[in-house]
Design a protein that fits this description.
- This protein is mostly helical and 103 residues long.
- Helix content is 77%, strand content 0%.
Length: 103
């Protein structure tokens, strides 16, 4: 516990005030982004991440987001291929060989 009037208490109050100011700025950006539509919202999320996370962390998160989107694309491609198959082939189990040496 900090004593009233101590340097530690003064420091904590200053840090809280700075955080509240930063939060108000982020909320204002979010409101602005919402008024501009969906693309603005992504800009606000990116700006928030930029202000909170170090560049190296953001780079890893962007790479992970891309990999997740690529995985979703692959799943959609598989579903499309299933729709395109002939009706007589849909009921039979399909076996597929995937070579790991080509990777």
């Amino acid at each position: 516990m900090t004593e009233p009037g101590s340097d530690r208490e003064t420091e904590l109050h200053a840090r809280i005030a700075a955080l509240e100011e930063r939060l108000a700025e982020m909320e204002a950006r979010a409101v602005d982004a919402e008024s501009r539509g969906g693309a603005g919202l992504m800009d606000a999320v990116d700006a928030l991440m930029d202000s909170l996370l170090p560049a190296e962390v953001r780079a890893h998160m962007r790479a992970a987001r891309k990999e997740q989107l690529l995985a979703m694309r692959t799943m959609v491609d598989i579903w499309i291929a299933r729709v395109d198959r002939k009706p007589e082939d849909r009921g039979r189990p399909r076996h597929e060989t995937i070579s790991l040496d080509d990777a």
